[in-house]
Amino acid sequence: MVVEDLVARAGELKQQLVEFSQQPRYDRAFRSMLADYGDAVEVWDESQLMLLWDSFVLEHRLRDGRTVVEQFVDARPELSPQDRQMLLGWHDVVSGVFEVQRRDGPALILVNLVDDLTYRTRSTLGPSVFRRTPKRSFLLTRLVAVGDEWVFSGPISVLRPAERKLAAQLALDMSLRSPESVFRNPEKLARAWEMQRAERQRFVRFFGTDLVVVPGEQAQRRLDEFYAFRQQEILREHPERAHLAGTAPTPVVELPPELVDAETVAFIYDEDDGMDFLAEFGLVEEAFADPDLLRRRRYRDTVLSYLDDDSVAPMVLRRLADRHPDTVSTVFRRLLKRPRFDWARDGEELLRSAKPEHFARPPLPTVTAVSERLADYAGRG
Predict the structure, then answer these.
(1) Does the pLDDT value for residue 196 go beyond 70?
(2) Which class is 96-182 in CATH?
C-alpha cells in the first residue's frame, strides 16, 4: 500500500480501536492505572487525560498480560496480516517534545528533543491540522509507526517558538524519568554505556572496589562523601562546568529508612546493572559463608527476601554465588528444600523463575545521556 492509503487505514483502525476500548470491562483497569498518579490527576486537563488513555490502550498490561490493542487484534480475525502487524507495532510508542523543523508536503519533519531523532510525521486527520503547528514550534505528543513513517497518536499540545526553555525543561524531565525514551537513539545508548562505565570507575577509585559493605548508620555519610568526590573529579575533568557548582547542589541520593536503619548496607556498582543499595547484605553473606545459619529464622527470611523481592537484581545473587562457590548450592538446597539443587546447573533457571521481570526486558544503562541542547538544564533546580 502507498503511504497515503496506509495513513488512511491507520485512521480507520485507530477509530475502531478507540471504540473497542470504551467497553465498560476496561473501566476498572483504567481507574486503577489512574490511581497510580495520585492527586495529580485532579488538575490534569482533557489533553493530559486523553494522552493517558492512549497509553492505557496501547501500552498498559491488563490482568491477562495483554494490552487493549492486543485484545482488539485477537477479537478481529478478519484483519489482514498487514493490519495486524501495524496495530501490534503501536505498542512501541514514541513520546516526546518535538520541534517542528519544516513542512514536507503532507507531512511534518519533527526532531524529538528527548532522543535527537528525526520523524517524518503525518496526521490521520489530514494536513490541515498543521496550520497550528508553525516552524520552530514544539509539540507535546505521541507517535506510532505507519510503514516507514509516523502518525500522531492522541492529542497534540503546542508550545510557541518563544517557549523553547519550557520545551527543553519538559524534554529533560522526560529524559530523566523515562531513560528508555532516550535510548531509542543508538548513539545515545552507546554514550550512556560509556558514561556508566566511567561512573563505575569513579566509584571504584573512591571505595577501592565495586562492592562495599558499610554499617547502616554510616551509609548516608559514605554516600554523600562519594558524591562530593564525584563532583570534584568532574570539575577537574570539565572545568568549563565550574559555573554550575555554585548553583547546583552536590548530587545526593537520600537513602530510605530501611537502609539507614539496617545493620549493614551494600553499595554495588555493577557493569550492567549500575549502582544498587542492599539492606542487610552482611547478614546474607554470613549465611552464604555458613549455611548452618539458615536454621535461624532471621537469616532464612532475609536470604529468601533477596530471592523473592523483584527489586533485588539477579546479579546480586550471582555475585554472592561467585563469592561463595563452595556453599552456594547448599544454601539453596536448604532454603528451597531441594536436596539435588546444583547452582551451576539450576541457578539461572531459578533466577528466571523468581525474577521474570528482569529477564523480560533488555539491559539498559542506569544513567541517561541527554542531548547537548538539554545538558544546560540538567544542573538547574
Answers:
(1) yes
(2) mainly beta
